[in-house]
Amino acid sequence: MNLFAETWRYLLDGSNWTENGGFLSRLVEQLLVSFTALGLAMAIGLPIALWLGHLGRGGFLAINISNVGRAVPTFALLALLVTLDWPGSGYFGPYGRAGLATLIALGLFALPPLITNAYVAVREVPLEIRQAADGMGMSGAQKFWRVELPLSMPLVMSGVRLALVQVWATSTIAALVAGPGVGRIITEGFATNTYSQGMAGAVVVAAVALVLELLAAVAQRLVDPVPRARAGSSPNREEQLSEPRPKVAEAADTVGR
Amino acid sequence: MKLRRPLAVALSTGLLLLAGCAGDDLAEDDNNNSDDSSSTGGAVTLGSQAFDEAALVTAMYAALLEDTGYDVETKLVETRPAYLNELPGEIDIAPEYLAGLGDQLNTDANGEDAAPISTSDTQETLDAMAPLLEEKGITVLEPSEANSQNAYFVTQEFSDSEGVTALSDLEGQSVTLAAAPDCKGRDDCEKGLTEVYGIDITLEPLGYASPETFQAVLEGEAQLGQTSTFDGTLEEQGLLLLEDDRGIQPAQNLIPAVSTEFLGEHPDVGDTLNGLMEVLTNDLLAEALVKVQIDREPVEDVAQQFLEDQGLL
């Protein structure tokens, strides 16, 4: 029996997608959990990190505190949270069983890449640009909103993109506490010795991770105020930002014709 | 080591079958058993599985056999095939479970995919496995009333308010079940509950009789939880077992499986073990198992106490 052929057959069987607890309902759960956890982490982490970046201090502390989140295994945290009276393992609306505990554990997991990237992004705005903004008489708020934030957006977004893909793939561990998501299909496959089912679950999670990565890459490109500056190998912002002048060779061509 | 049992058999029956093989061992065994014990004694090896319940019942066998003059050696292993393949042979007696034994013999003889021969009926299962037992050289003694099955529990309040005492009372209802992760698709679990009882099951894979499963039922997140018929912790938690009135659980009566050859040479073993089978019940074993699993008493002590209480020692 070929495991890959069996996996493929499992994926092609429509009832595995539509049944109660099938791929579709589990995917919706996992997308909800992942995006909500990411949203919560962004709402908490980004303002703090951007503000600290603007002030230019406290970032070391913030980054290291959030990095504790990397050191604590998400599974250990999740297992602990479900045994507590709150958040416990109860149903949490569309997020399913142990939904709240899963959201908290994943939200904390998403913080480190968000905070590190956002803080560094603001700090890395070139000093001469900040000085120019000061020289133009911008207030602190104006400087942040009109200079620092736009210029730091690509790096902030790359943190969001990193966090999204990490949170998505990690959210499968919710299955270990009988929580929401495609992980349930994977653990059930292994518990019943249906390895093709476990494999199929892993394939679906990986495929969606790739799709999310692509979408995030597009989003990252859209928020970049100077997109073409990043295309060249040695970006020269001033030249690329201004209207490209006709080059000598092109001009000569025109004349010759 | 390998020769000990055959030698003992040879001695006690006066047939020096393997006498040429090992004169030294022969003398040793001679000193150990034959001189002191009555004609019913000798060496006997028990084989069973290592989990608490099987270990406790095996300790009861051992204490009884020692009391009647046998020199008992016990081998506890993780899986059934490890000792069943040596019965008869290295192992003389296995404290067994009816359907577990029957289905194992069946797959050994007819391949991994052979359909189970066990049913929820004790006699039916016994009849179905009779030819396999004969072929293998095993004789089973009387099955005990004690029947170690998977079982499903609800809270006392749920039972009172919904009027539910048997699984069939849940027919047509939507029920959340906290059970082992491999429950889905099993005839004695999700599939059986759905197809035989017509219950709309939502499965939560929280584990077999695990703390999470008990918690889920006690807190009302699940209505039904999975445990064993030998679970002695239910009553004090305000939980009760539902009757499997349509029989989706195979009959797992406790039953001694004895090498036919060994039994022929030691017919007294049959009476000894049948006496134990007569006494054992689910409730008594559940009570004894609480001492092993909750109070962490050694199985030998619990077995000894149990047999004394029952007047068997």
Detailed description of the structure:
The complex is a heterodimer of chains A (257) and B (313). Chain A has 257 residues and is mainly α. Chain A has one domain (3-256): Orthogonal Bundle (MetI-like fold), CATH 1.10.3720.10. Chain A contains twelve helices and no strands. In chain A, helix 9 (183-191) runs antiparallel to helix 10. Mean pLDDT of chain A is 86; it is low at 231-235, 237-242 and 248-257. With 313 residues, chain B is α/β, with parallel strands linked by helices. Chain B folds into two domains: 37-147 and 251-309, Periplasmic binding protein-like II (D-Maltodextrin-Binding Protein, domain 2, 3-Layer(aba) Sandwich), CATH 3.40.190; 150-242, 3-Layer(aba) Sandwich (D-Maltodextrin-Binding Protein, domain 2), CATH 3.40.190. Chain B is 42% helix and 18% strand. Chain B has 13 helices and ten strands. Chain B has helices at 4-13, 23-34, 52-67, 80-84, 98-110, 122-136, 156-162, 190-195, 211-218, 260-265, 268-279, 282-293, 299-309, and strands at residues 42-49, 70-77, 93-97, 138-140, 150-155, 174-179, 200-205, 224-228, 239-242, 254-259. Chain B has a five-stranded mixed beta sheet with strand order 7-6-8-5-9. In chain B, strand 6 (174-179), helix 8 and strand 7 (200-205) form a beta-alpha-beta unit. The A-B interface holds A 20-21, 89-91, 97, 178, 184, 187-188, 191-193 and B 180-182, 184-185, 202-206, 212, 215-216, 219, 221.
Radius of gyration of chain B: 22 Å
| Low-confidence regions of chain A | 231-235, 237-242, 248-257
Q: Sketch the topology of chain A as an H/E string, one letter per element.
A: HHHHHHHHHHHH
Strand tally of chain A: 0
CATH topology of the largest domain in chain B: D-Maltodextrin-Binding Protein, domain 2
Q: Report the structural category of chain B.
A: alpha/beta
Q: What's the arrangement of strands in the largest beta sheet of chain B?
A: 7-6-8-5-9
End-to-end gap of chain A: 71 Å
Overall tally of domains of chain A: 1
Biggest sheet record of chain A: none
Count of DSSP-assigned helices of chain B: 13
Shape designation of chain B: globular
CATH architecture of the largest domain in chain B: 3-Layer(aba) Sandwich
